[in-house]
Amino acid sequence: MSSMLWWPERFCEELANRGHYVIRYDQRDTGLSTHYPPGEPGYSFGDLSEDAIAVLDGYGIGAAHLVGMSMGGFVAQEAALRHPRRVLTLTLISTSPIGIDGLPPSTKAYKEHSAAAERIDWSDVGAIADLMHRDSAMLAGTRHPHDAEAASILIARDIGRATSFISATNHFVLLSGDKGATLHASDIEAPVLAIHGTADPLFPIEHAEAFTQAVPNARLHRIAGGGHEIHDRDIDEMVRVIADHTASGPNG
Questions:
Q1: Model confidence over 16-35: pLDDT tens digits?
Q2: Residue 227: HSE in the Cβ half-sphere, 13 Å Cα cutoff
Q3: Buried b / exposed e across 99-113, counting CB within 10 Å, b at 16+?
Q4: What is the value of pTM for the model shown?
Q5: What are the residues facing 64 on neighbouring strands?
């Protein structure tokens, strides 16, 4: 449920310095994108995957290297499965393969945090901001100290920029439904790079390992002690492996 601001500017700039033309965008119900009434998204995961392709169309780009994180990783997988010719490579950060069952659940502490979140007043932006602060701390890894000040600045920017910040809760509705129930990660044709923190509390590392077992052309890069985040101190490492991955893919 995050806008494009959650793709750190330095992350995008470093990829651009490697010769990539970087596009980040607000998914529906985030930032300045199209918004729907809370609880009534009026779109599906399939629509979000079509949006990614529509962005490429808007820029006149025939095929691209897709990078998706967390929920965006599901969207990126679905886009690659529905439009294989439009996707040169896939980089999937802190996410889980579509159609794979039996993977470990979130940690007990994170599940308790999520349960508490269900009791907040979703019409109260202040309460949502407090939840986001707690969430960013809960999702942090063990490799680096959590930067609460930087998270606070980012959350304030996100809330202040959004046309209808409360509408982002519609993503919870999508997450409770099917995420491409008829699709399966094993059918992904593009080369896949899974980048995953070994201390991710939302999707334990086994979720990333499952990509290498299910997808014919997939490899895993572990961020030792990394959480469910793109930490500033991990950006250089992440950009390096993404650049290597895209260079080795089709038309790299």
A1: 999 999 999 999 999 999 99
A2: 20
A3: bbeeeeebeeebeeb
A4: 0.94
A5: 87
